[in-house]
Amino acid sequence: MNYWLFKSEPSAYSIDDLARDRVTAWTGVRNYLARNFMRDAMQPGDRGFFYHSSCAEPGIVGLFEVAGPAYADPTQFDRKSRYYDSGSDRTTPRWLNVDMKFVSKTRVVSLAELRGEKKLKKMQVLQRGNRLSITPVTEFEWSCILGLLDRKK
Q1: What does the pLDDT read at residue 130?
Q2: Residue closest to 55 by CA, chosen among 16, 90, 10
Q3: Based on the structure, what is the number of domains in the chain?
């Protein structure tokens, strides 16, 4: 099993939206590395942290599961979508997405709390200049953060 962190601005799509929808297509990813994670590494059943970014208190706010394999992101073909890509074609789509399934909401594990945990100093989301909306999480980091959730309620 692999572990992931997906970032979203809560004004665009929040953990409350995922809790309501139960399953959603994670569309609109327009970064090749993040696309490659979905295409090459994500498997149904992988687990992830849902992270709110660009808000008053950025941090982990929930858990999700990858619900299926990567498939063509339909927004790349929709001329009305802000994610439309005129260079992509249906036979060899450039952009992919996965479906994510809601598992649970959690308390906020803030960016400050993550940064304060020395065991997480190498976590990709905490590195300077990291702007990826999808990042891998090691099994050690996953366990450490679950421990933070258990320890501080």
Answers
A1: 86
A2: 10
A3: 1
